[in-house]
Amino acid sequence: MEVVAARLGERGLLGSTIPARDATDAEIERVHAPAYLELVKHEIGALTGPRYLSTGDVVVDGVSLDVARRAAGGAIAALEAAAATGEPSFALVRPPGHHAEARRGMGFCLFNNAAIAARAYQAQFGGRVLIVDFDYHHGNGTQDAAGEGLSYISTHAAPAYPGTGHDHAALGRDAVLNVPLPASGIATEAFVAVWEALMREATAALRPDAIVVSAGFDYAAGDPVGDLGVAVEAASGLARAIHAAAARWCGGRVAYVLEGGYDIETLVDSIERVIRASDAHEDAPSGAEAGAMPAAVRAALKRARAILS
After folding, report:
1. Of 23, 98, 188, 207, which one has the greatest count of Cβ atoms within 10 A?
2. Can you tell me the distance from the alpha carbon of 136 to that of 265, in angstroms, rounded to the nearest whole number?
3. Is the separation of the CB atoms in 47 and 60 below 8 Å?
4. Which among 100, 93, 99, 118 has a CA at the least distance from the CA of 36?
5. Are 145 and 102 in contact (CB under 8 A)?
6. What kind of fold does domain 15-308 have according to CATH?
7. Which residues are CB-contacts of 88 (< 8 A; sequence separation ≥ 6)?
8. What is the rounded radius of gyration, in angstroms, for the C-alpha atoms of the chain?
9. Residues in a beta bridge with 153
10. What is the distance between the alpha carbons of residues 35 and 43, in angstroms, rounded to a whole number?
């Protein structure tokens, strides 16, 4: 994060910043079970060196709880800023969060930053929140948090870690929509076209009051953990589609929360594209053709439309 922030600063992209803060126990417990939070406190408090958290594949050390609190609080602060100004914000935080379930940390994630921010928004303002997740991996933890005014939409590689995200679900007025993508890769045009369709149709049906973006850039070509073969330029198209939906349905209230992305240059370039497209209020469609999508992806979108209707 220090390197990424420094490089974004060199490119003149950190001119307007807000301080992060620590998420409180009460804010974390809107998403996570109190017993899980106590487990994290106990295990990290007893550490004498790095080790795995007992619930899953998360390496922790003596400062991990403090860092995870700050990441979750940074996500909350970003969404609060978007709510106050009607302008998009970006929470440049780590560790990521979308794999963290109510009672289990896993996949590098201790606390579910995006879901915690969404619930904090609801506690303060009420309304409905949509979390959209374009990370290479499925956000199993965020999906589990859906309902009670929170909807979730994801594209992700399949089959890939964590092996979830195959089905759609209607949850009253909320929805979970999963569009698995071939792990072998997808054309950049098809990837952007999927998200243009999802943002246009899902927001029209769900009418969110705010949008939180689980912004994982490990889908990009060359990422050492993910890699769907998608060009870095796709981030501009994603940001335009998200901005158009936020401007139409929720007064521009959108906060990006960093998830995956493990190649520094690609990560910096992708975040830059999101910031520049958002700052310029770009919302014109990219011209990506739906015909570029693989047949299985078009079928998943068709099933998603059935849920939305």
Report:
1. 98
2. 17
3. yes
4. 100
5. yes
6. Arginase; Chain A (3.40.800)
7. 82, 243, 246, 252, 254, 255, 256, 278
8. 18
9. 132, 177
10. 12
Q: How is 227-247 classified by DSSP, letter by letter?
A: ---B-TTHHHHHHHHHHHHHH
Label the pairing between strands 51-52 and 59-60.
Answer: antiparallel
- Give whole-number Cα distances, 216 to 88, 136, 241, 263, 307, in Å: 17, 7, 16, 12, 25
- Catalytic, 138? Answer no
Cis peptide before 50 (omega within 30 of 0): no
Model pTM score: 0.97
From start to end of the chain, where are the E strands?
A: 51-52, 59-60, 89-91, 129-133, 150-158, 169-171, 174-182, 210-215, 254-258
User: What is the tally of helices (H) and strands (E) in the chain?
Assistant: 10, 9
- CA 20, CA 10: separation in Å to the nearest integer? 21
Please write the tens of the pLDDT for every residue from 14-27: 988 999 999 999 99
Q: What is the pLDDT of residues 243-275, one digit of tens each?
A: 999 999 999 999 999 999 999 999 999 999 999
Catalytic residue among 32, 98, 99, 168: 99
Provide φ and ψ at 186, rounded to 5°.
-145, 145
Give the dihedral sign, CA 272/275/279/282.
positive
For CA atoms 278, 276, 107, 300, the dihedral sign is positive
Of 99, 229, 101, 97, the residue nearest 161 (C-alpha): 99
Domain boundaries, the chain: 15-308
